[in-house]
Amino acid sequence: PPASSVSFPFNVPTDTSCNLNIISTEFHQFENDLLSSNTHFGFANYSWNDTEVIDLINNHFPMTNMRFPAGAIGNFYDWTTDGFYNDTNAQTNSFVINKYNSGFTFKYEGYRTLSLANNASSTLMFNVISDDVTITKNRLQSRLNDGLNVKWVELGNENYFAPQGLGNVSDISSYISHTKAITAGLKEIEPTIKVAANINDVAYNSSWNVLMADENYYDALVVHPYIQTGTFLLNKLSAYKMMSAYKITNKHFAEYNLYYPNTPMLCTEWNILSGNTPVNFVQTLSNADFFLALEKGNQEGIVKQAGIHMLYHSDKYHEATLAYYDNNSNTMKLTANGIFYASLFRVFNSGNVYDAYSTSAELEPDLPAVNAKAIGQGDYVKVFIVNKLPVSSPLNLTIDGNVYTGNYTLDSFHEDVNNVLTVPYATYEEAWSSVSSNGQISIPAYSIAIVTIAKADISLEINELNRKENIRTYPNPFNDYLKIDSIENINTIEIYSITGKKIRVEKRLIKDSDYRINLSNLSSGMYFLKVGTEIFKVVK
Fold first, then answer.
1. Among residues 80, 95, 244, 281, which one has the fewest Cβ atoms lying within 10 Å of its Cβ?
2. Mean pLDDT, residues 49-64 taken together
């Protein structure tokens, strides 16, 4: 085939900077269920109960939600044998029949043990093609008896596709009637169980969706927002499709919300599928942008769960697998995509995600050149940045109205985008370049970056900013009391809301003293403090 090479598919903007203005009191708890994954180990000699897989999950992908038994082949799963059916439905799939004949099992006990050990909830994909209501009820009861925290039950997998629309679900009408009966049966077993039905996310105006939109028996809907390059070459066209992931995904979610408002979405499978296009770092870079669209979808109340496809494959260059077992070194290795996904657990998991969205020049309408999101993690603020540009990007970070120019650590991950194949990594750390500095932050070209700032450094910087020539206010942020130092006569202190409304006046002579003003009655938020003629921005 012709040689592959990446050409940046957009015009490089004049201003390459990324601006992120966060308010420390405006955040939401990260939804850990966004960091799930899809896998079934059907193509490898490893499974849920192998030490290598357990270590991989515990060390790099400590998921708090795990899907079982996975996607398309789960449509032929026989829970009583933990293998495949050999009925007329399964016989349409040569992969399934070959696995059945070889005695393949999904190793449910390993999945159960790992889920319980990690205190992880379960998203269980049920076979609605072959199983009737009684079998399905028995399956749920058995899983509950096993101690699983079943958070979601998927009613089949992509049954709108002909190869997966068989047996009980030959068309949309039969799918609805059958899954409606199954839902009623499942809720007899456990009234609080939540079921998620399939929709045809490939075409929202299809007859499948028209009929599903009139139903209300489900608690959520399953969407697989894959993006496919549609070319066998790694070139400008494929790079354009991959780098548009953020825009494509946001548009997808907006369209879904029009058809199914107020109905949660489960993205139990997502990825940029390269197909025959050689695996390249542009794919990893774009998947990072894809994830930020998923988090945005959650912030907007649409997406409740997401699982990347896929956790493990025996071929390190298959699609965008996170990991594979290297027989030469006898070690589990991470792909570039695995490095990126592992970083999400270190940055987002159980953190407080600041609501603010970043802004940058747009490569085309609704497609920012650089994306950044800030997360509060314990004593630190971490900023996750995706720079799709072939040049570096200055990060202009403002915290509670103050431009931050203090100390930071910058960890960046990038590969040569002209390499046709990505690099395997024996350890997570070897993939990252790290630098500690202060002042202006610059994000390298074609990179995923994590900026880490100690909250103590933020407070110190803000306190310095809240120092005028003769007056200083501190600490900032404050709890109940705010201190004011002054070497000039101050007769009046005024407090204003962020909208400019005067909410308090205190008349008192302050000179050369450590004066404390009691503001315990104020609610959390940002305020303006006027001391004499000087104005300070403070946060409680």
1. 80
2. 95
